[in-house]
Amino acid sequence: MTNDFWSDGELYERYTGRWSRLIANEFIAWLGIEGSRLENCIDMGCGTGALSEALLANAVCESLTCFDLSPAYLSLAKKRIQSKEVEFLLGDGQNTLLPSGKYCGVVSGLAVNFVESPEKMLSEMRRLGRSGATLGLYIWDFADGMKPIRMFWDAAHECRAPDVEELDSANLFPICQRENLLESISEAGWLEPEVAPVEIDARFENFDDYWTPFLSGQGTAPAFAVGLGEEVREKVRQTLCAMVTHDSNEPFVLRTSAWGAKGIAP
């Protein structure tokens, strides 16, 4: 596996989209913008619309632009979000080609680490915000707190899966660590930068509910899983099952943490 696959929004929903929808509300509360009715906002890398839906549900903005590079994910977001106050734009978050200083709120959920240059996207977010605009994002804490994915990689390491050291999300995305993220938003020109954990509980009906999305190919860990040989993948599955639950048929909960980052446009 050398590339992520972002071609099926429904499969992504079963993987981490369902948890993004829960953590989006916690992120908005931490950002302190619920009920603020900002004139306009843009959701950079909106994916299937988790953060966008939360922005609308929490009365954050009067109008919203959903911006993403994946036609499939943007199409699903359109189906999920039915509002005349929302526009959907296809494009690259590192260079949106949108006017500078256009938005009162510029936010992003689980996207900035997946672009070629996170630094360019963070600078673009700052550029799009008018002076004093709210800037904010959240990304999974792959190194530690995002347990549903962290434990998959831990199992892959224990099984000595091929290329696991290189492709482990914690190593692949260093910006997903607190100090690196804080440094990155500061260098991108975000004023009053702050980074803090945003957490939820991820609840699973049973081990199959947890494991099956890893076979979707949607995202870094699933792309890695489907690229493994059948024997190694089964070994990882068994090892992971023993790590997360005592009974594969029973419900279980894993703590799930993202890093929230916020600042103000100059």
Describe the structure.
The protein is of the alpha/beta class and about 270 residues long. The chain has one domain (about 10-265): Rossmann fold (3-Layer(aba) Sandwich), CATH 3.40.50. The chain has 11 helices and 7 strands. It has helices spanning about 10-30, 50-55, 70-80, 120-130, 145-160, 165, 170, 180-185, 205-210, 220-225, 230-245; strands spanning about 40-45, 65-70, 85-90, 105-110, 130-140, 190-205, 250-265. Strands 3-2-1-4-5-7-6 form a 7-stranded mixed beta sheet. Strand 2, helix 3 and strand 3 (about 85-90) form a beta-alpha-beta unit. Helix 1 (about 10-30) packs across helix 2 and helix 5 crosses helix 11. The longest helix has 23 residues, at about 10-30. The radius of gyration is 18 Å and the shape is globular. The mean pLDDT is about 95.
